[in-house]
Every structure is written in C-alpha cells, then in structure tokens.
Amino acid sequence: MAISREEVLHVARLARLELTEEEVGRFQEQLSAILEAVSKVSELDLTDVPATSHPLQIANAWAEDVPHTSLTLDEAFANAPDRDGDYFRVPPA
Amino acid sequence: MGAHGIDTLRLSAEDALGLLERGEATSRELWEAYRAAIDAQNPELNAFLTLVDEPEGDGIPIAIKDVISTKGIRTTAGSKILEPYVPVFDATVAARCKAASMPCLGKTNTDEFAMGSSTENSAYGPTHNPWDLDRVPGGSGGGSAAAVAAGLAPWALGSDTGGSIKLPSAFCGNVGLRPTYGTVSRYGVVAFASSLDQVGPVTRNVRDNALLYRIISGRDVHDSTTVDVPPVLLPESEDLKGLRIGLPRQLNDLDGIEPGVKAAVASAIALAESLGAEIDECELPLSVDYGLPCYYLIAPAEASANLARFDGVRYGARSDGPDFREMVMRTRHDFLGDESKRRIMIGTYALSSGYYDAYYGTAQKVRTVIKREHDALFEKFDLLISPTCATTAFRLGEKSADPLAMYLTDVLTIPSNMAGLPGLSIPCGLSDGLPVGLQLVGPQFSENLLYRAGHALEGAIGFDPVPGRLA
Amino acid sequence: MSGETGVTWEPVIGLEIHVQLKTETKMFCRCKNGAGGEPNSQTCPVCLAFPGALPVPNRRAIEETVKLGLALGCTIADRAVFHRKNYFYPDLSKAYQISQYDEPLCSGGSLLVPTADGDIVIGITRAHLEEDAAKNVHVAASGRLHGATATLVDFNRGGSALLEIVTEPDIHSSEVAKRFLQLLRQTVVELGLSDAELEKGSMRFDVNVSVRPAGTTELRTRTELKNMNSFNFAAKGIEKEITRQVAIYESGGVVVQETLHFDPGNEESPPTRSKEEAQDYRYFPEPDLVPIYPPLELVEQLRQQIGELPSARIGRIADTLSFYDADVLVTGSLDRLWSAVVEAGADAKETANVLANAFVAAGIDPAAVDARELAKLVSARSEIPRAVFDEALTHLGDPGFSADPYVAQKAVSDVSELDPVIEAVIAANPGQAEQFRGGKEGLLGFFVGQVMKETRGKADPRVVSDRVRSKLAG
Predict the structure, then answer these.
(1) Domain map of chain A by residue range?
(2) Is the ipTM reported for this complex over the cut 0.95?
(3) Min CA distance, B47 vs chain C (Å)?
(4) Tell me: the pLDDT tens digits for B201-257?
(5) How far apart are CA B457 and CA B243, in angstroms?
(6) Nearest residue, CB atoms, A58 vs list C23, C61, C290
(7) Which CATH code is given to the segment(s) A1-42?
(8) Which domains can be identified in chain C, with CATH numbers?
(9) Against a cut of 0.90, is the pTM above it?
(10) Eight-class DSSP state of B189
(11) Which domains are seen in chain B, by residue range?
C-alpha cells in the first residue's frame, strides 16, 4: 500500500489523533488510495515553475500599532470547557 | 401553503424587497412566512441545524451556512467538536448582512468543516435534496442550497473551497457564485483551506445573487487577503452580443458526463449562441487532469493546520485525559468525523519532513500551471462554460463509502478554484426531473460579466426553480 | 583549553536570542502588548484562535525588525514571507506559531565585539519576526489527596511580537558570549526596540555549545543550554559544559545531542537533561498572510534613524581613552555624557574617571545632567575639598543645578591660614610627632587627617601634607 501502518501512526501522532486498531487499518487503506491518486502531481515536468502560495498578487498588508478593545473575561471564557478563575485549565502538560 | 399569503417558494429576494417597499407585507410577516415554511419542511430536509426565534433586523431574512460565525447563535461547522460553541463575535460577512438589516433565519447544514461534496459528512445528519428526498443536495453547502430551493429562505450565504457553493447550487437548481478569491472576507469563517475558501451568495436568480454579493463583498481590515472590489452592477442586459465564450474540451467532454447533463448544457450553449455570443472550443490541457490531485493535496494540508486549534482548550467539546497530550488526542478522536480525520492525515503527510517537496511543494507548482492555462484562455475568451458537475444529484449513501468517488464529484469545479477565479453556477435545465447546473467561469474580478451573461442566459433558459414535488 | 592528551580544545558557541518588541499591540492582533494585566484580559478572537480568526501583521513590529537588521549589517530581504510552525502545546492557541522560515526579513549580518586585544566579528545568520506563546502555569490542584496537577494558561502574552536573532557559531569563549549578549542587549535597548530585561523575560536566549580540536573547522555534536536568565549565569553554565564535553572527548567518549534545562532561580543546581525527539514542524507558507516587500524608501528612512552603535562607539572612544575606560563608559551608557562634558571643556581622562567611579556611585541619571555644569565641576576637582565635590555630585541631577557655588568653595591652600592649625595639631600630639621624627612616615597621614578634621575638610590636603612635613622636620 502507498502508506504504511507506521506512517499512519506517525501522522496520527503528529496530528494528535488517537486511533483504534480498526481505524488504523481502515484509514491505511483509504489514505493509500487517496495518496496514490494525488501522487499524480509528480508526473508533470515542473522545472522553472514557481509555487503559487496566494491566488492574488498582493503584498504589504498590515495594520497600525493602535490597540483595539479586547474581549471581556466573560467573552473570552464564554465557551471554555474548563475555567479556573481567570485561567483556562487543562490537564498537566 | 404560504403564511400571510406569501408564497416563499416563488419569491425572489428582490420580490420580497418589493413587497416591503410597497407596504404589501411587513418584515414580521415575511419572517413568519419563512418560519412557517421551515417548520413545515425542515424536519424532512434537515437544511437548518439551528433556528433563530426572534428576527434581528427588519430587512430581507437570510440563511447562513454553519461555518460562518454568528454572534450569539450557535455555530457548529457541521461538527460535534463545536456542538456547544456560541461565537462572541460576528464574521465580517454576517456583520455586513446585519448592517443591511437582514435578520438571520438560522444556520444551515454543511459537511463537517466544509469538507465534502454531499453534506453527508455532517455530524448532524445529511440534508435531503428538495427535488428528491432520497438524494443529496450536494456539498458542502447542501443546507443553504436546499433552504433556498425549498422556499425556506429567500437567499443564503454559502462557502466554496472546491465547489461547495457551485455544486449544491447545481444539484438544487439555485444560482451560486464562487467569488474571485480575496473579494469576500474570510474573517469569522471557520477555516478549511485558507488559500481557497470564499464565502458566496446562494440565490434563486442571478439578480438576487448580484444584490447579495454587493452587500458582502469588499476589502476587510480583519482579513489581510482581501482587496477592494469594482462596483457590483445589477444585470439588465438580455443578450450576449460580443461575448466570446470558450468551451474547454477537457471539462465539456469529460468521461462520465451523464447524457441528460450533456443535453441540458448543449441546449444552453445553443441559446447562448442565439443571444449573440461567439462560441468556440478550447483546451485546458493539464488543469482538469491535475486539478483534482492538486486540490486534494493543498486543501488538506492547509486544513490540517487550520483544524489543529480544535484541542479542547479554549472552546468546544473536550474528552478528559490524565495529561494534556492524552486529552487532546482523545478529544480529537471522539469529536472529529472520519472525513476530517482523513484530510488532516493526508495534509499532515503532505507537509511532513521528507515529503513536503514531493507533495505540497509540487502541488503549489501545479497550481501555477493551472493558473497559467486559464490566463492563456482569457486572452482569447471572456468566459468559459461547462457543466458544473458530470451528474445530477446522486442518491444518499451512493458515494459515501468511497472517499475517492466522492472527491471526483468536484472534478469540474476544482480547476478554476485552484486559479482563484470566480465561477457562477446557474440551472440550465432538468435531467430526469433533477436540476442540471451550468458553470460560467471568468477571469479575476469579472463578476459583473458573469452576472451579465448569467442573467441573459437565465432569461432565455426559463428554468423554474420550484422543485417539482413542491410545485 | 588543553586536556591531558595534549590536544587544545576550542569551544564553538552559537546563540539564539529572542527579544520581545515593546510595540503597543501584539504581532497579529491589536490587543495591548505588555505584562502586568489581569490574566486573559488582553485577548481577542485572533490571539485566542477562535474559529475563523485571522492574523493582521503589526507594521511597527516589521519596521523595528528591519531596523535591527540594518543595525546588524544584515541584508534586508526583497521579499519576506511568514510561515506556520506546527506543534501542539497549551500555550499555543492555534497549534501553530506564525514565524519565518526560509525567507526571513533579515539575514547575513554581524555584530562587532571589541576587546582589549582587538575586535571580534560575530556573524549573524538571520533575524526574523514571529509571535510569542502564551504563559503556562503548572500547578498542584488544591484539596486533592493524590497530588494531581493541572496547567493553567494565561493568553495575555500569546501573540506578542518576538524578534529572533541567530548567530553563526563564531563565538569561542564564554567571555565573548557574555560580551556579545551584553552588546546586543545594549544595541536593542538603544534602538528603542525593547527593554530587553532578562529577569522579566523580555530578552531570552539559548546557547549551543560544542568543542573541537583547535585549528580544525569541524562542527561536532552540540548541546543546547536553556533557561539561563543572566549573562553571568550563562558564562558559568557555558564553562561547565565546555569542561564536561572536553572530558568526554579526552576519555574517548562521544558527546550526545541533548538539551540542558537550567533552573533560572538557582545557578548552582545541575541542569536536567532531555533528549527531545526531533520535532517535525511541517513549515509551510502562511496562507492567511501576504508577502512583505520592504519598500526601499522605508528601509532608508529606518537606516537614518540608527545612529552610532555601542560597538562602534567603544572603538572610537578607545582612540582617546584606554580600551578599558572606553568600554566602561559605553557599556555603562555614560559615553554620550562623557562626550558632552569633554566638549564643554573638561579633560577627557579626568571626566572618564569621575563618570566611571564617583558618578556611578552617586547613582545619578545621565539624562538629568547638564554637561556644562559637570564640566566645571570636573575641571575644579583638584581645587575644591573632596566633601564639597561629593556634595555637588549628589545634586548634579537636580533641575537647574549650577556648579558655581561649589566650585567657588576652593580648598584652603593659604599657608597663613593653615599654619596655625597645623602647629596646633602638632602641639597637641607630641608623641606622634616624636615617632614621625623617629622614622614612622605613615603617621603623616594621621596629622593630615587631624588637620582636615579641624578645618572640616576645607583644607587642601596636598598643601597640608607639605606643611606638616616641613613643620615636623623642624
């Protein structure tokens, strides 16, 4: 297959996706098929072809160093899964 | 049906505006008419995920795709990971609608994080096509398209990355614009692929589409990738005199285009000729063959980074864990859907050390090739025409087991998207009772031209946007 | 350093420095920048990475990065691009940091480190712009029996503009590393870019250390030293690591790539070591931001604003004074005042002496000083009593200070005034007079001291010394 089991586990780890055994197998098959299809891009001769990162040729978009009104604490925490006082709490990192 | 005697199935936004202006209906009555339609049909369509009870604004109501942040109104992006999420800010496009006094009717269904071509990847169940409940409305913005087609909203906002406005518009008989990249703000729109996403109007006719595009478009200081837009004109012309229209062979003669689709598109082209357009075949030698793989490398790569913020820390659902890493892994496992996971993994792979050059890096160059091929055609042509999709709406479940088969649905909409070009899909006929979409593609900033051509063609085609089963 | 095997080992040191720019707002949103606010009170959808939020760059931060690059003699890129650096951590709200990768704003410069033995040129590989992470606080949950902990996150700092400077591995001693850091810090502060305070974290640095046989150009495995929060601490830590690596090679071993995490609160405690797995950051160009093409007129404008930098000033002033004096004045931020005082007529060496010693001891702010008044004081230093001079110094920073009243209080050197006092002191101390005449030269100081005491410091000590000597000699 185009992508190995180890590679599936590797990208899942990089992307912080826990996978069950069944999922590893199923995704390996599907990802292999997709990878084979998208690998087609390497068939082209792209010597001297520059990359396009942006569809528009614009540059120098920036803003002045002037403060705006920040969120209130209630707004900042409105959707927080775990608020501890004025902090976002998570299990130990 | 039609509360207050308002037939929402046959009302364009411009019509509704006329009712209000002539005092033939109040905005409250208009609102209630759409609410009544929603209450009657949404249970079987599942077009709306969240409904707003009290209108805010006395203008023409609008439905908004659930990837667009609406302050105080739940925004799920079609995902369980955002099930509890209520934004504290409006997306710029939502704010512009608000400023135009347009009350939001509710949030429409979408494939999770806009990834999909049928709305079957929504964590909240698929939307059903108002033309045939056993069929998909297209995706990712199936909810908006179905809502407009079924008269649940006069118009709607959608978003298009690989065809997520154009395709549902084709399947549901709407007019949908995918704007020139950079003409509509993405601020507040849950990001899928940053260099491809664009918000656009989904409407019953071309003039409505221009009206709505005028309201939402234009540079936004919150989005560094936006630019100023030439004034949007409401189309009036009924002819296509002087217009040079190209028919790329690789789009129009693609293997697998259903005969009914071919026929409807052919008759539309014949009409275009009769309206004065000069039609000629042309070539997109590589864009169609390589557009799909190019898209399915770039979009997932950008998405893999855009979706990384869903880690259970600051908002959204969370699964517990003994430490941060476990918590994040379980949260993303438990609350993200399969297609999102697939794209995240493909994207991560395409960007990973040792693979970047072969995959993402190469795809960015292919993108340049696609842009150049289109630019070359626009030296000779004003517009390009093709079907929006090789088929009409397929059945629910027909392609959902095979990701690749689903991806192929986008083969005709993707190439111009990769080049950042605008595309308008208008209905051009029926095939076995299902709408067929015609895709008009123009150079960057050519929306006025698209609208002019679309409006003239629309008039000549005379498509009835009311779904047969609701007529 | 030389080892037992007779090989001379050369340390190879590179530095990675992060400087927090003191802009009003953050790098990609307009929340207020700066410490001291209540936790999470300086946040918005952008720096909290709410769905749909988008970055907008801070123009001033870009200009300040270019300015620093120019000061370091860097090439300013024609085209600079932001990249996403992807990893997961609680203090990184987007799970990617917007930074710069292969198209940074500045590259290829140098910083001159003047030393008594000549100038050392330290190459600067690059200087680029990025955003800072938020602050994690690791806590023990209260009331829990089993010591469960949590991590609390304050996003106020998240998104602040950070300037990253990377040097070539051109540093070959801990002393030069320390000097480099001091000069870089002073350069950054003088340019007004940052307060660069190590204790507050507005300047942070990591050190890469390896060693090699002197005379070779190989680059051996290096270790990374993190969390040293003072330059002295860093010099010590570097020294210890150099010694450790030399010992390993001398005993035939191999240095392993590691990161040493120091305890910033305790210089003496040994660092914890970690072998961090190589991270795959999957850099790709930031699609939400468009490239920067620094306009030439802007670059020129910024270049004009730079002025003479500390390294250059040390070199220039060392032509007039000793290297040591030049170094002390410039690194003490006193050279501007010195120049002005000398220009107002005072002696160069005398002024340097006063500034480097008494002035610093008196704790005066150089900016508050009128150079002409200080010049008068310095010039009259040998003529007025020490006490008067010292008192003048304490008032030097007062608004409207005038040296005139102090300078007028010349020390008494008129022998007709001094002789009676001297004679009285000698008469009052016959024993010591006897001992002095007997050969105890040191007692001269005793007599001079007594006369100074009697005259309340107003006598000229040199004249007193001469007169005492001649009177005691009879």
Answers:
(1) 1-42
(2) yes
(3) 22
(4) 999 999 999 999 999 999 999 999 999 999 999 999 999 999 999 999 999 999 999
(5) 12
(6) C290
(7) 1.10.20.60
(8) 9-301 (no CATH), 334-407 (no CATH), 415-473 (1.10.10.410)
(9) yes
(10) B
(11) 3-284+373-470 (3.90.1300.10)
